[in-house]
Amino acid sequence: MSNTSETVFTxxxxxxxxxxxxxxxxxxxxxxxxxxxxxxxxRGVFLPDExxxxxxxxxxxESRRRRGGADHDWCILKLGVPGKVRALDIDTNHFLGNHPxxxxxxxxxxxxASLEDLQNAEWNEIxxxxxxxxxxxxxxxxPSDEPISHVRLRIFPDGGVARLRVWGDVVTDxxxxxxxxxxxxxxxxxxxxxxSLRNxxxxxxxxxxxxxxxxxxxxxxxxxNMGGGWETRRKRTPGHDWMILQLGARGTxxxxxLDTQYFKGNFPESASLEGIDAPGARITDxxxxxxxxxxxPRTKMESHKRFHFRDELKSAGPITHVRVNTFPDGGLSRMRxxxxxxx
Length: 343
Known about the structure:
Layout: E1 13-14, E2 23-27, E3 51-52, E4 55-56, E5 61-62, E6 73-91, E7 102-108, H1 115-119, E8 124-131, E9 137-141, E10 148-156, E11 160-161, E12 163-170, H2 181-184, E13 192-193, E14 202-206, E15 230-231, E16 241-259, E17 270-276, H3 283-288, E18 293-300, E19 306-309, E20 319-327, E21 331-332, E22 334-341
């Protein structure tokens, strides 16, 4: 049965996510529903009475019924950030009588290739033709030791797929910098955002993410609205909320940014930041560790505002992980942690 809840892989990144810049480039056919829907957030919606001049409106990629010719349809997509694949989700949510019975996925590493080059490239099959269930997340383990930049989804013979997720580990281009202009002008030439998803940062664990996922905190760019950040439920018990993140590389922090953009009646009263140097530590070890060092003391927050910290940072030396604390609860739109990467 179709629904909106989504199984995700904590600690891995959806390399194809639209929020990271993932996009569909070309397909054999998208007569009923556009290929660009494959990379959108969520699992898609179903509007029972919505039709277009081509037929039933569907929130996904849907080709027409195949009548002769090639035995399958295909779609080429560019990842938002190159990486090594660990798992795949070919989601047929809401596609019940029109899903493809089988699908396969190919991959290639050609970050600067033109569409013509990609169409003539030697693709690597990382998922052989496999059966798909209707109205379901179809999850496959597809480990790859080599980085990829593009994927090609093949469906047999035709039909509709709501979303495609390519879960994996980011392969970082440390020259890449993306942030708001008011922050970029403050960044020194040798500083990089150590926690950005684009640079391999990971949200590992948090006390609560009732209203929005923790990964939003380190997405590139600005959130489009309040739902684009990390927001916890109202805390009715003692204590405070927190999130533990792994840096993309071990490094020393030199500037931090905490942003409450769009959070006006639900921003944290205050926040703090801690760091730890614990390469290879397990998540449970990090949660229970007493070795966290204060980097930003508990500081009063305000609504809909971006806070920059540089002189206020306490030296913690090189670190591998951070813990951001919000008191007692509330929402943060983005966090940036600029610093010097350890070679």
